[in-house]
Amino acid sequence: MPRVMDTRRSAFPATFTWGVSTAAYQIEGAVAEGGRGESIWDVFSHTPGKVARGDHGDVACDHYHLWREDLELLRELGVGAYRFSVAWPRWLPNGSGRVNPAGSAFYDRLVDRLGEIGVEPWLCLYHWDLPQALQERGGWAARDIVDHFGEYAASVMQVLGDRVQHVALFNEPNAVGLLGHLLGVHAPGLTDLHAYAAATHHLNLATGATLARLRSEHGGWRLGTIVNLQPVVAASGSEQDALAAELLDAAWNGNHLDPLVRGHYPAATAQLLEGAMEHGDLERIQQPLDWFGLNLYSQLRVAADPASLFGLQLLEPPEEAETTAMGWEVAPEALSRQLVDAQARLGAVPIVITENGAAYRDSPGPDLEVDDLRRVRYLERHVLELEAALQAGVDVRGYFVWSLLDNFEWHEGYAKRFGLVYVDYATQRRVPKRSFRWYAKLVRDGIIPAAADVD
């Protein structure tokens, strides 16, 4: 049942964090400038047939050169926080060794400017752009990647950690494992069950080991990680569909959550992952989190399919369902359901929604305005669900929209636009959309504006 909006009150405390998120490879461009090394996404996106229309991130939003302009958009938006990622190959071009001075200087200036405009930096250490040099040595499927990631993370925090308090180690390791190592639709483009199992486990091991390392080096950092969680809906009440839903929930939601907070893998996937484990690994993985980042866009529908490799199939949204340009079902109630479920799994760990948003086919009108009313309505309904979860007692501390800018949307290229700001890729002109103004009003007032109230 849709939430009924009451603008006379707000469940959001004064300390609630409103923000926006971006990722390095999706916006920075300048892939061959400033000493940056090659990433797996450089290689993948330049491989014919891997990305729609042959798009790649060589220029993207040219944020590497236009970052000052983009930070002024943050100031205009009025958010209190900005989640961005450091590009590992810009920091360490070969994945390890000596820090690239030009790379560290770029992020040093960025963090300084965020402080000057009163926006808190929320740093994500890994948003999918593994240095290609490490991939050639096995990447996430090789156990020594755990130590490489720890060295990289420590070197970043040695430079930026005096001004950065909130740190996310990973963004969506479940997507890295499943989409990059099993389904092959993301870099590095593997379709290997053993590589998937190894990568899944090593991503978890890197999370736990690096949490422990960073916490031992500085007690003031607020350390967390980010997982994309989506409710799984079985096609029917049959036992077969229920088992399919259990397996998908384990592979997508549980594999990178349960080991961190419960010290074990879900029963449905534990046997698959045992081959990558060594004695003591689960103890190393289970480390305390200061906060947990939850990304959510939709929900997953699944049915049993004995003829498929894993005995299940993902279903398209029902014909009557509203969908985004990604083909994802618009299901705002999934957010409150997932928040309640995540809190039950996490216990006392506070939650931050680190990504929520929608892609639509936006284009400026004759007046150069972008009237993205569908995105406004999507955000409005999801923030109403967030408010309901808060009222139900879920400990949610913040909400970040994906994304500040239209950007390179991975294997979908540039046709799918998620931004609050329209980017004309030919000219790099930025045009704030109607959703930008809606979100600015929400951030300013702390009360959810009706979609119709923002022109």
CATH superfamily: Glycosidases
Q: What is the CATH top level name?
A: Alpha Beta
Nearest-integer average pLDDT: 96
Oligomer state equals single chain
> How many structural domains can be distinguished in the coordinates?
1
Instruction: Report Rg.
Output: 21 Å
The global form is: globular
Largest beta-sheet characterization? 8 strands, parallel, barrel
**CATH architecture assignment name:** Alpha-Beta Barrel
- CA-to-CA gap between the ends? 27 Å
Number of helices: 16
Residues in β-strands, percent: 5-15%
One letter per element, helices H and strands E, the order comes to EHHHEHHEHHEHHEEHHHHEEEHEHEEEH
Look up the CATH topology: TIM Barrel
Q: Which secondary-structure class do the elements indicate?
A: alpha/beta
Order of strands side by side in the largest beta sheet? 1-2-3-4-5-7-10-11
Beta strands, count: 13
Poorly predicted runs are 4-8
Helix content: 25-40%
List the SSEs and their pairings.
Blueprint lengths: L16 E5 L2 H4 L12 H6 L17 H15 L3 E5 L2 H4 L9 H16 L3 E7 L5 H4 L9 H16 L5 E6 L1 H10 L10 H25 L4 E7 L3 E3 L4 H16 L3 H5 L7 H4 L7 H5 L5 E5 L4 E5 L7 E3 L18 H14 L4 E5 L17 H19 L4 E7 L18 E4 L4 E4 L1 H12 L10
